[in-house]
Inverse folding.
């Protein structure tokens, strides 16, 4: 099946295999004549990035790249990216890669023209109104993984290098002007990254669906996103060249990020401190902490999960759904627990304190207290 379409939700999306060739047109549509391509160190050296720079150069857009981006981007990375943006006289950003490259690229475009520190724009109340909207550069997003869905998000996650706390930075104009969603760019993903990013997309859909906040549009998107992951992630994992599976997972990733406008929960609350302190892969970490959180939330979500299981074609209600989660984790080679990731209990008290003040904690269907967070970390061993 050939999956190709132009969407205008929640931004302009050019979806389909081979559409990276349209990147110069996307830059033009966004008003970018001198783009800076922002990506992570690992991706910078790969052929997919070289081909993308070739496309830009052939169109007269140069081949400027910034790649000093950590797996969990920091304010240090952001400052270096802003310096590169200014030094090169750029007028926009191509955010290229997985969640780290996409988030940092979007934040470089957002912050390059601001005079206040990035922490002044944390996703709290109306803090975003502090920004000078007229100084925000446009960005075009090109995902190369199917996980975070950051390409359709109005925020970026950045770690404070001093406190080691992840912060969500929000502004409506952080949303990319155009997205190139080309599943062919994900074909070269290693199996472990396919698994981790795919489970990240699933975690977004699952937590959005379970969040108690009222947002029926997001709930519907989350439900179909979970079904797509169930049907297509194992296929993409088994055969990385399965373009239909890669395309469906790219859709599921974007759907998860749209859906979590409804809220996230304790999976992310527990995962963020682990990523900040141990630099673990975010999606893989989400998958590791998922079963204890499902058990913790069961009293509040049992009926809801039963309906989701029926829609996904899983028998047995909550128990059937839980068993399927355990089975797909095993099939994808996800570590069984934090012990298998090489993480012990030494910093659990610190992480529990971080988890309960994480912005995602308020969306959990069961209140995440300090004691509950500490016990959940214990249950992840």
């Amino acid at each position: 099946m050939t999956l190709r379409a132009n969407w205008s939700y929640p931004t302009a999306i050019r979806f389909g295999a081979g559409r990276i060739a349209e990147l110069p047109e996307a830059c033009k549509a966004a008003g970018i004549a001198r783009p800076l391509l922002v990506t992570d160190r690992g991706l910078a050296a790969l052929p997919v990035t070289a081909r993308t720079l070739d496309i830009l150069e052939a169109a007269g857009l140069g081949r400027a790249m910034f790649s000093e981006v950590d797996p969990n981007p920091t304010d240090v990375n952001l400052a270096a990216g802003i310096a590169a943006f200014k030094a090169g006289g750029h007028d926009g950003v191509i955010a290229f890669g997985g969640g780290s490259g996409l988030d940092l690229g979007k934040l470089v475009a957002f912050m390059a023209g601001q005079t206040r520190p990035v922490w002044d724009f944390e996703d709290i109340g109306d803090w975003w109104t502090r920004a000078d909207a007229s100084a925000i550069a446009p960005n075009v997003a090109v995902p190369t993984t199917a996980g975070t869905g950051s390409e359709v998000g109005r925020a970026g996650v950045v770690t404070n290098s001093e406190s080691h706390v992840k912060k969500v930075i929000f502004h409506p104009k952080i949303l990319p002007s155009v997205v190139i969603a080309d599943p062919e760019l994900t074909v070269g993903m290693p199996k472990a990254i396919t698994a981790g990013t795919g489970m990240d997309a699933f975690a977004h859909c699952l937590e959005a669906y379970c969040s108690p906040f009222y947002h029926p549009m997001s709930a519907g998107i989350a439900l179909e996103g979970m079904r797509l992951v169930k049907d297509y992630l194992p296929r993409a994992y088994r055969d990385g060249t399965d373009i239909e599976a890669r395309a469906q997972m790219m859709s599921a990733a974007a759907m998860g990020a749209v859906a979590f406008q409804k809220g996230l929960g304790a999976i992310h609350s527990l995962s963020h401190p682990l990523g900040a302190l141990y630099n673990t892969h975010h999606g893989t970490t989400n998958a590791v902490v998922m079963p204890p959180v499902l058990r913790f939330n069961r009293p509040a979500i049992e009926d809801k999960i039963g309906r989701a299981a029926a829609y996904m074609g899983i028998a047995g209600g909550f128990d059937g759904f839980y068993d399927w989660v355990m089975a797909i984790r095993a099939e994808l080679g996800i570590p069984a627990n934090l012990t298998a990731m090489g993480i012990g209990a030494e910093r659990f008290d610190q992480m529990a304190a971080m988890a309960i003040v994480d912005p995602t904690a308020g969306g959990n269907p069961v209140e995440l207290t300090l004691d509950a967070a500490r016990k959940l970390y214990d249950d992840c061993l």
